[in-house]
Amino acid sequence: MTPPPKLLILVGSPRREGNSATLAEAVKRGAEASGAGVSLRHLDDHLSHFLRDCRACRCENGECSIDDGFRDLFFNEFLPADGVVFATPIYWYGMSAQTKAFFDRTFCYYAASYPDSAGVIRRMTRKRIGLLLASEETYPGASLGIVHQIQEYSRYTHSDFAGVVRGIGNRRGEVVKDPCGAIEEAERMGRELFVRKVSDYRIDTERAGGVW
Hints:
This protein has 212 residues and is an alpha/beta fold. It is built from eight helices and five strands. Helix 1 packs across helix 8 (182-192).
């Protein structure tokens, strides 16, 4: 029997009951309903430092010398995951510092100076990626920088960017009142993340004459 897919949800907001976390919980409900194995983690629990200069910081055995929970999160939860959903508020038209730090810190382990970088790169690739965004303003352009960054990360790692849900709210948990149904869309993302059709054609891609 094929084991259920593993989904990791990473919340990059410092607010435990904020709108990003509320959207993340909705994805979790949807994914669990579909039978996936789900872990939800708050990045604040695992990262205490930004990326440093690896040439000066790296241990003699190649390990990162920053003593926080990033390594455990990265190796024991991120790399084994079949899909990852990133949840972040929109701060200054970009992702939160916690979320950006997560991406930056991966460099310690896929850089050639890490002894098993080839194995890390192999396990970083070909995942299903989702994005949850929370903001007060509805301006469509506010999210474009983050969407582009995750889109290009997905392409860079040969992963499938399966979708974006943006919820509007200011006070903690107010996203549940979003008239556009962000909570329902987040639950749907969780249910469909591993089965949703994702296409990213190139000019020479072989494809059928119909979509469905």
